[in-house]
C-alpha cells in the first residue's frame, strides 16, 4: 500500500530486528572474549609406562595450584589473588587482580590413580599418571 508516495506496512518485524541486534552483540562479545581471555594450552601424551598431562598456567605458582582425584576424574584448580594499594595525598586507590583456572580431566581406565606425581616449573604444570601393570588373570573351569 502506498500513502503519499511511500510504502506503508513494510517495516521490519520485531523478531528480525532483535535477531540482528543479538547477532551484532554476539560478534562484539566474541571479539572481546578472544582478546581478554587467554586460551590455556593443554597437552595429553601417552608413553609406554605413563600418561602425561601438561598445562600452561602463566603467572601462577605451585602454591596456587590444587589437584584433586575423585574416582577416575582429576580436577585441577588454581586461584591467585593479588591486592595492590596506592596511597595518594587526596585518597587511596585499591586494585584487586584475580586469576582462576578450573579443569576436569577424565583419567583413563588403565591408569593407576594411586601413582600420580605433579610438577610446576616455569608456569607449566606437568602431571604424570603411571599405567597399571598388565596382570592377566587365568582361570580354568571344570565342566560339570
TrEMBL record:
This is Hsp20/alpha crystallin family protein. Residues 31-144 form the SHSP domain. Belongs to the small heat shock protein (HSP20) family. It comes from Seonamhaeicola marinus. Coiled coil: none annotated. It holds the Pfam family HSP20. Signal peptide: none annotated. SUPFAM superfamilies: HSP20-like chaperones.
Amino acid at each position: 500500500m502506498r500513502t503519499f508516495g511511500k510504502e506503508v506496512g513494510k517495516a521490519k518485524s520485531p523478531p528480525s530486528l532483535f535477531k540482528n541486534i543479538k547477532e551484532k552483540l554476539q560478534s562484539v562479545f566474541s571479539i572481546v572474549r578472544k582478546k581478554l581471555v587467554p586460551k590455556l594450552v593443554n597437552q595429553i601424551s601417552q608413553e609406554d609406562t605413563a600418561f602425561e598431562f601438561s598445562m600452561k598456567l602463566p603467572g601462577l605458582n605451585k602454591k596456587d595450584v590444587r589437584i584433586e582425584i575423585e574416582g577416575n576424574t582429576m580436577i585441577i584448580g588454581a586461584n591467585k589473588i593479588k591486592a595492590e594499594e596506592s596511597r595518594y595525598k587526596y585518597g587511596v586507590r585499591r586494585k584487586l587482580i584475580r586469576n582462576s583456572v578450573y579443569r576436569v580431566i577424565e583419567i583413563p581406565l588403565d591408569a593407576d590413580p594411586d601413582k600420580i606425581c605433579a610438577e610446576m616449573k616455569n608456569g607449566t604444570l606437568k602431571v604424570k599418571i603411571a599405567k597399571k601393570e598388565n596382570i592377566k588373570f587365568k582361570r580354568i573351569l571344570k565342566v560339570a
